[in-house]
Amino acid sequence: MVPCFTGEDVESPTAKCGGAIFYKKNDLVFYTARDYVEIGPAFRGKLSLPLLGAKRSSLFKLLGNPKLKDAKWEAYQTQYGCLVLYFNAANAVNKIQFSSLGTEALNLCQ
Which of 70, 74, 88, 100 has its CA 20 to 30 A from that of 58? Predict the structure, then answer.
């Protein structure tokens, strides 16, 4: 349960990311038009996999090989869709995005 709603972007052609619901205090965003969720570094909730702060080198045993990767992020195909992890300068996860869409269909807001 998320205790506080703090803002929204209505789904419309003029919305920057097509629509979103923001829980700024919890560093959590639901991108409704793009069908994904973003968890930021200030998130203090409990995750079933302890990914925030995890070292890049420890992810293989949890997630296997990434389907796509870059210097600052890796994308993993999952049973439910995809998981994108972003890394800080210390190579620790500092942002998580997940979706029921596959990596080829995901359209992230930049």
Answer: 100
